[in-house]
Structures are given as C-alpha cells and as structure tokens.
Amino acid sequence: MSDTPAKNPAGTPSRTAFTPPTHTVPPARFSHGVRKGNILQVAGQVGFLPAVPGQPPTPAGPSLREQTLQTLANVEAVLREGGASWEDVVMVRVYLTDTGHFAEFNEIYDEYLAGPAGLTGPPAARTTVYVGLPAGLLVEIDAMAVVD
User: Fold this and answer.
1) C-alpha to C-alpha distance for 111 and 12, rounded to whole angstroms
2) The dihedral of CA 141, 108, 40, 20: what is its sign?
C-alpha cells in the first residue's frame, strides 16, 4: 500500500479496499479493510484461522479465549495491511453472542492490548450482545483507526 493515496478527479484521497493474504475472500461485496486518507475501517472480524485455499473458514476453537485471541490477531492483520497498528485505533466495537461472556472477554481483551498489542492507552470501545453470528462463533470485532 502506498503512503500517499491516489487522488480522485475531485482531488480528495481515493478509497483503497483490501483483504490480507491470511483472510478468506469475503462471501459478498465487502472488504476486510478500507482506507480513505488517514481513516482506516476494519470490517467485523471473527475467530477464523488463517485461510487455506480451497477449504472453508475454520474457527480457532470452541472457546471464547481461542476465538477472541484469533479475532484480535485478524483485526491486527487488517490494520497492518492498511498501514496502521493498534496505536492508531480510536474505536473498537465488540459483538458477543452471550451476556455471560462479558467478564471473560474483558480479561482476554485487557491482556491482549497490554501484552501483544503493547498499547499505552486503550481505544474507546463498545460491547454489545449480538445473535447473528454463524453457528459456533462467539465474538466479532471491528475497529476504526486514524493513521498519522
């Protein structure tokens, strides 16, 4: 990805959509990430393991911990592909399938952002319960980043 986005005829930065090589091609007309200027939106990510050509997506495991860690890694892969990092994230939206998972999710999320992500301060966040994920999936996370 270029550091300077191409300009459209009106002179504003063009929109760049992308899918990291570790991710499956989306089943519909959407992208895993879109960057326009210094704004990067990461689409909702779930706990699928890295894509294997010719095979359907596979969840990281049945547990909330396994799926959350893989989901956060998938968000991070999209951030990197778009030229960003967790330090650039200003908003995270989390969708859980069970209200009983809030406490465990918060513990895993805090560990990840303080450890592997190495954040000095957490982004704003919103967590809600959502029942529309495919069977077996427990968490979905999307993020918005502002890249300097």
Assistant:
1) 39
2) negative
Query: What average pLDDT values come out for the chain (148 residues) when binned by 10 residues?
Result: 48 82 83 95 96 90 97 96 95 96 95 82 90 92 96
In the DSSP assignment, the letter for residue 94 is: E
Question: How far apart are the C-alpha atoms of 71 and 61, rounded to whole Å?
Answer: 11
- What is the pTM assigned to this prediction? 0.88
43 membership: H or E segment, kind and range: strand 39-45
Beta strand 39-45 pairing with 33-36: antiparallel
Dihedral angle of Cα 117, 122, 126, 131, to the nearest 10 degrees: 20
Residue type, 79: L
Q: For every residue of 47-82, which 3-state class applies, written as one string?
A: CECCCCCCCCCCECCCCHHHHHHHHHHHHHHHHHHC
Other C-beta atoms lying within 10 Å of the C-beta of residue 138: 24
| H helical segments located in 1-148 | 64-81, 102-114
Output the six-digit token pair for 14.
């063009």
